[in-house]
Amino acid sequence: MTILSNLFEAKTLGFFALLQEAAPAAGGGEGLGDAFSLAEMMSNLGPIAILVLVILLLMSMYSIAIMVERFLTYSQAKKQSREFAPRVAQALKNDRIEEAINISDKHKKSHLAMVVNAGLQEFRAHEQSSEISGDEIEASKRALQRAIAIKNAEFRRGLSGLATIGSTAPFVGLFGTVFGIISAFQGMKSAETAGIGAVAGGIAEALITTAFSLAVAVPAVWLFNYFSGKVEGFVVEMDNSASELIDYFLKNRTRQLKA
User: Fold this and answer.
1) Band of residue 148 on the pLDDT scale cut at 50, 70, 90
2) φ and ψ at 195, to 5 degrees?
3) What is the greatest pairwise CA distance in the chain?
4) What are the strands, taking DSSP E only, across the chain?
5) Would you say 110 and 87 are in contact if contact means Cβ atoms under 8 Å apart?
6) Is 130 exposed, middle or buried (0-12, 13-18, 19+ CB in 10 A)?
7) Span 58-81, mean pLDDT?
8) ∠246-251-255 over CA atoms, to 5°?
């Protein structure tokens, strides 16, 4: 995607430079150069190119909204988890289950708190029994796995949208590119000449839609990969917390059996 971006940017800049060089010769003055300024080309876009740019703008706005929302969600989860981990570890070290659950309830946005809370709730449900059986430990494991699956799905919400935008935006731009090239050939036929002035409008339209599509797709792909890596890290942290919690349950069971 980066190679394509650099290639199209180079082509676009080269074409614009060619327009500026050709303008005085073609028009004998400043008129043509002004007509092929970026602002003029944007104002002279055809209906298909405008439709393509509107679609790309909507895709860009949606992807930006996802990026901001996911960034805030992940930041809050990381921040609260850092606060939660040492406090709940101290509570469990002193066998204060109720305190650990209360601490978990106060960190609603922490992925670790959700997992630990699910396991502790299941453990507490069987804590009053005379012995914690292997089946009850398995029930706690299943509760932890469910919590991890739910949180994983929450963390991945919206990422499929980023992936879709990243993969389809270049094709939306390609649609505009094709119509721009068609427009260029139509202009060449109408003018009955192969000069730059006859094809410049259509080619400029094609390159503008291509450039906009890449400007939408590249950040979406980058952020999708970045956020996917974040989610994988969160899943590893939740798995580790679940394993540590199961170890804690097993130690309590061992103490009960020895007693």
Assistant:
1) very high
2) -65, 160
3) 102
4) none
5) no
6) exposed
7) 93
8) 150
